[in-house]
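Hello,

I think I submitted the PRP job twice by accident. Can you confirm which output corresponds to this input? Input:
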Amino acid sequence: MPQPYQEYIDKILIPEDKLQARVRELAAEINRDYAGKELLVICILRGGVMFLTDLIRHIEVPLAIEFMAVSSYGTGVRSSQGDVRITLDLNTNIYGRHVIIVEDIIDSGHTLSSVIDLLKTRDPASIYVCTLLDKYERREVEVPIRYCGFKIKNEFVFGYGLDMDEYYRNLPFIATVDLDKYGPPAG
Ligand code: PRP
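Support: Only one job matched these inputs. Its output is below.
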């Protein structure tokens, strides 16, 4: 049974006020870039949900939201190994629309690379990526990122959408894991 997060935390990496301030800055950039246009914001489940719901509160151009779910065949807390499949596809046609994909974190890059390749075949007017976190040292395939909240080192993080075995996504801050208490990542 999962213990309270305090059992596993090493440190708070990005506190709530810093997260929220950066989210507002990203929304302001988006407002400038898309003035006079309308947006389709696609959230990749499940990690992107907290970021999405805060971000869109500050976006002033007309927008619709959609969700996609993607799974990799990787195991445990390690992320994708390059073998990505769509488990929930969009319910809408993106042809001719301005799309922003919202993610919590880009790690190896395989997830978003696959999603972008797929969505481009559907001929959107434009497609850009907005990620809260960029774990850049882990990149295996290049992903073009237009909006990035924070670049982070290769540490195991949780909270604000990111899970530890599906728990703790609801925390309003990003924290690092004390691997001595939680155990090393599987896989
Ligand atoms: C995480 C994250 C990205 C992906 C990034 O999702 O939300 O979608 O991994 O990793 P990559 O760049 O190495 O592909 P995860 O598979 O953990 O699912 P979740 O969002 O439901 O937690």
